[in-house]
Amino acid sequence: AGQQEIVSDGIDGFLWQSLDELAGRTLQLIRDASLMEKMSLRAREKSRDFGQDLFAQRALELVASVLEGPGQ
What we know:
Blueprint: H1 3-6, H2 19-31, H3 33-47, H4 52-68
């Protein structure tokens, strides 16, 4: 997944199209400590969706479903 697939704009990060927009968003976070704290917390929570343990669990479930075959 790329940035657009994993970042919820304004919730756990920002999507940006230009360096100027990136700089503006960065300044917004620097100036608003409350927003930075909220977004940081949400980003850390979301990062758990991409951890090694969860990846391994999902991979094993996928393999198991393939081995079981359709209708099993």
